[in-house]
Amino acid sequence: MTPAVDLQSVTKQYGGLKAVDNLSLRVEHGEMLTLLGPSGGGKTTLLNMIAGFAKVDSGNVLIDNENVKQLPPHLRSLGVVFQNYALFPHMSVGGNVAFGLKMRKVSGAEVKERVAVALDLVRLGGMEARKPSQLSGGQRQRVALARALVINPAVLLLDEPLSALDKNLRAQMQLELKQIQRRIGVTTICVTHDQGEALSMSDRVAVLSQGVLQQVATPTELYNAPATPFVASFVGETNRLNGTLVGVSGEHASVALGDGSRVTVPSGGISGSPANTPVVLFIRPEEVAIEPSDIATGNVVQATVFQGAHVDVVVDTKRFGTLTIRSSQRVDLGWEEGMPVKIDIRWDKVHAFPA
Amino acid sequence: MNWHAKAAIARSCAWLFIAFVLLYLMLPTIIIATASVSSQETLAFPPAGFSMQWYERAISYPDFQSAFKNSLFISLGTSTLATALGTAYAYVLERHNFPGKKLITAALLSPLVIPHFIIGLAVLIFAVQLGYVRSFETIILVHIMIVVPFVVRSVLVSLRMIDTDVERAASSLGATPFTVFTHVTLPLLAPGIFGGWLFASILSFTEFSGSLFVSTQSTQPLPVAMFTYIRDFADPTMAALSTIIIGVVAILLVIGAKWFGLSSIISVHDDAH
Fold this sequence. Notes:
- The structure holds two protein chains of two kinds.
- By secondary structure, chain A is of the alpha+beta class.
- Chain A has helices at 43-51, 93-103, 108-121, 137-149, 167-184, 195-201, 219-224, 229-234; strands at 5-14, 17-27, 32-36, 58-63, 66-67, 78-81, 155-159, 187-192, 204-209, 212-217, 239-249, 252-257, 262-266, 278-283, 288-292, 300-306, 311-317, 321-327, 341-345, 351-354.
- Chain B has helices at residues 3-35, 53-60, 62-95, 101-109, 116-130, 136-161, 164-172, 177-206, 209-212, 222-232, 237-259, 263-266.
- Classes of the chains: A alpha+beta, B mainly alpha.
- The interface between A and B is medium-sized, with 28 and 18 residues.
């Protein structure tokens, strides 16, 4: 089956700077793919090239196997939801949603019916006569979504769709967006810098940094098996240790740490590296066990960050420097500053990369 | 003296100062308006007696009547043409980048720093070459040069307030560039365009020095006719006519500021954003 969107070696330069660098990516029919990355990572540029708002310097953009590289936005039949909604302020809610249908010369009765259906879909039924200025942020977001969906777009593009909403509303809209997307099965590409949003909404996530595609994977894969140091440090929280590769044998690698001790870690990203290569080890806060100790251990609690269901304990360790460790122990057990603790790093959960 | 009392005195002083400045700025209007109702034959302040006879004369004086019609024609022609020109200009300046853009912007705004009578004089010399001496076209040509920078400014302010994503949204929904302009950009620009048009009309209607050299007895606009009148007569008719003009312009400005965002071109701060 042909992919819904096929990006082939797409490059875009601004001045001498490559905003998107030789990027290839396939988006399957009906899937929700998120472009995740820090601002300036090239994700919005990529979205603009798919939508036709930015010219492609080299490479091809195929939508349903048709090269749309030279097509202007109005001939691409894509639904776009903008960060600030971009509703037409001089039109009513109904007028906004009907706009795309009128451009397609759909008959009056049908426009009315389809607008009503689209507004029902986003739970704004009967709000046709309102003006955008009379709506809340969440409602405007829904109107923008209805306006993009009513034209049955080949692909739905979402540009930081939830970033302008407050935190509670955002979580609710995340869920709703995902449900609507599932129900109508529209191929969706979403841009976000919020990893929580990316992990919770997407079928697959594409991580971009400095215009280069780092990894495309399901949220679980991305979290459990990051392909590059960037992904390991950008997605989820992590601790970073430096070391030197001693040797690789199959699935395992032996790494010498700063204090001279050796540990065995999964060889993953360093399986092809020669001995003496400097390496960097990433270990997530929840992959380190922590328990209070009666005697001095060389590890001392520096600070604690209460997170509700768990506590992040910042520990000053003799061997590894400062580590953040996640404890699900109840807070009233108490992690106090200055108390000695025993820690145990699950070395088999470490992600190793050449430094 | 405690802190509160000091603050109260300081506040009173500030209000007093503001009142003085306002009074100073309003002084010409106050003097003209008071002098216009005098029952005496000469223009004087303070006036003696009360009479509306000068208003009657101002309205019935034939030269003023024809000059008023001239002014109306000139100001409508000027503002309409200047609005079309200024809107197109502002759109190109805001939405396109091209070499020499800064130079063209500077050239466009230069009438702001050139004395208006020099523009009039220059156009007169040019018009003589073309055989178009002192016709309505010549006056309108001069006025357009004077008012176009204001129209451009008004439209630019409105253009900058339009979220370009709104236009992108329209194009993603299938609108051609032309439809985007007519269905989205233009309606959103309308207040700025109308504000620019209104301001251009008022500026053109009250323009004097730019019109002086390029008008004749038959084409002279109202301010020139008033100037001619005051050279021959010293009665309060001029004051009465001025008061009418000030009143009408003030009403138009208030309407413009309230409904069409005119404040963005005439005030220092822009409260729309």
